[in-house]
Design brief:
Number of helices: 3
Low-confidence stretches: 25-32
Helix content: 25-40%
Radius of gyration: 22 Å
Mean pLDDT: 84
Largest sheet: 5 strands, mixed
Length: about 170
């Protein structure tokens, strides 16, 4: 028998399953990173509580803009204010090697946020505390690589926080 014909119902079924999963995921609010429907009423938004040169601020600014929301540093022109607080990170040893040296670390980032209407100070999205963490292992004798890998992971942690902040805003303003 021809194998292509016997696989045909399977392929057809797989296509329908894929389409059904995609429709269900979209219907339940699942979005790919960076794909947010943010209302015009919060644009421009002012971000406070972190240095504007920090990685978190830069990633927030980029994410807001890609979602159609302008970011401003001017208090009077802002329609909404995203107040960040408690932005911090940590690095903790989670495993030791045979010589008692750190072999694995957990990197973490946390931040709290609330979104307010600038004019009325009314809360648009209530305060939330977000945490993100990653493990990374150390290879012996690769000091330079450790620093680069740690920075990449810290950037990923910030990106995850930004993603979760925008998702919370998107869902909170529906």
């Amino acid at each position: 028998p021809d194998m292509r014909r016997s696989n045909s119902p399977w392929r057809s079924g797989l296509v329908w399953i894929t389409v059904a999963v995609a429709l269900l995921a979209g219907g339940c609010g699942f979005h790919l990173r960076g794909d947010y429907a943010l209302p015009d009423r919060i644009s421009p938004v002012r971000v406070t509580g972190v240095d504007r040169f920090s990685g978190l601020y830069r990633q927030l600014e980029r994410a807001f803009r890609s979602s159609g929301v302008a970011v401003t540093r001017d208090t009077q022109s802002a329609r909404a204010v995203l107040e960040l607080s408690g932005y911090a990170g940590g690095r903790f040893v989670t495993a030791l090697d045979d010589e008692g040296k750190a072999a694995e670390y957990e990197l973490s980032r946390q931040v709290g946020f609330v979104l307010k209407d600038r004019a009325t100070q009314s809360v648009l999205v209530p305060y939330r505390q977000l945490d993100s963490e990653r493990l990374y292992s150390l290879e012996p004798d690769t000091g330079f690589g450790k620093t680069l890998e740690r920075r990449e992971i810290e950037d990923e942690l910030d990106a995850e926080l930004v993603d979760r902040i925008l998702l919370a805003i998107s869902l909170g303003l529906r």
